[in-house]
Amino acid sequence: MGPVRDPLFFISARVMAEEPLQTVDAEALDEPRLIEDAGAAQRIGRIAAPALRDLGLRLVRVKISAASGATVQVMAERSDGTMTIDDCERASEALSPVFDAEDIMTQAYRLELSSPGIDRPLVRRSDFERAVGHEAKIEMATPVDGRKRFRGRIEAVAPDSAGATVRLVVVADDKSETAFDLPVAAMGDARLVLTDDLIRAALRREKAALKEAKRRPGAAPPAKAKADPKRKAAARGAAKPHGPDEGDTHGR
């Protein structure tokens, strides 16, 4: 008997749209991650990425934690950065048999599918380009000027032979500013910091995306009020753990 999973679907505030956007940018889907996971998470990510690609999704990151015994979190998105409840459900149904066949874990585990969220990880060059002007936390795998941890404003992103270099402006306690050029290939982790400006920018993008969806021929208008409350509950992680004889492989 393979591992027992209880997939959970999470809605990251103001990021996951109720109505799917139909545009699929193949080039954006194939944009490589410049910051990859390590160890078992890297192996699982390489298994998951092709299955997600077939659904019009791209992998953001994989995280393995000890929550609820063991949890495998797969973070994904569309090429435009959105992620719907339906996307999470489809991704779980597609990944479950693939993970079974590859025997990704030696113990029972929960499978979680989620969007990147507003304070998202930055893993691709386009992630950093969209984050220009916003604050980020960056941890380097290789020290720069004798330090590994940085927090500051992303000022610019320049292409280089290894992918990209990010100019990060760090403000000291005395309000003085220092700019650091950080190669993305040497980063171990990078993530946006949740600020009021970032939330306002996310709201503007969501509003523009919904407006664009309405303009598309044959596009159905967003219908948040008509969403199935049971699906919303499941999306927020309301499903309870179950044993080998409870529910099907997708937690229903």
From TrEMBL:
Organism field: Roseiarcus fermentans
Entries under NCBIfam families matching the protein: PRK00092.2-5 (NF000932)
Originating gene: rimP
Entry-linked HAMAP family: RimP
Subcellular location: Cytoplasm
Single GO biological process annotation from the record: ribosomal small subunit assembly
Keyword entries, A-Z: Cytoplasm, Ribosome biogenesis
PANTHER family in the cross-refs: RIBOSOME MATURATION FACTOR RIMP
Domain Ribosome maturation factor RimP N-terminal as annotated: residue spans: 48-119
Name recorded for this polypeptide: Ribosome maturation factor RimP
Source domain of life: Bacteria
Region annotated Disordered, chain positions: 209-252
Function of the protein: Required for maturation of 30S ribosomal subunits.
Record flagged with keyword Cytoplasm: yes
Gene Ontology cellular-component annotations: cytosol
